[in-house]
Design goal:
Number of strands: 0
Oligomer: single chain
Distance between the termini: 36 Å
Shape: elongated
Structural class: mainly alpha
Order of helices and strands: HH
């Protein structure tokens, strides 16, 4: 079976690194929403806490997940 060339390989919208960072950020935000709401906060405060947690997690995971030496 011949090897597929670079031009034949499908191009994806997000890289694996970006997908992992986004998924972990959404999970962190969702956990913050759930915990805030469960502790008696309203939906508005839960969503604000979740948004802040997701944004902070995005910055954190972007710094700690390596990009295999690719220049930015």
């Amino acid at each position: 079976m011949p090897k597929r060339s670079q031009a034949d390989s499908p191009s994806y919208l997000l890289s694996v690194r970006a997908s992992i960072i986004l998924a972990l950020s959404v999970l962190a935000g969702g956990a913050a929403v759930g915990l805030t709401f469960a502790s008696g906060g309203g939906w508005a405060s839960a969503l604000l806490a979740g948004g802040a947690a997701a944004g902070s997690a995005l910055l954190l995971f972007n710094q700690i997940i390596g990009d295999n030496g690719v220049d930015r």
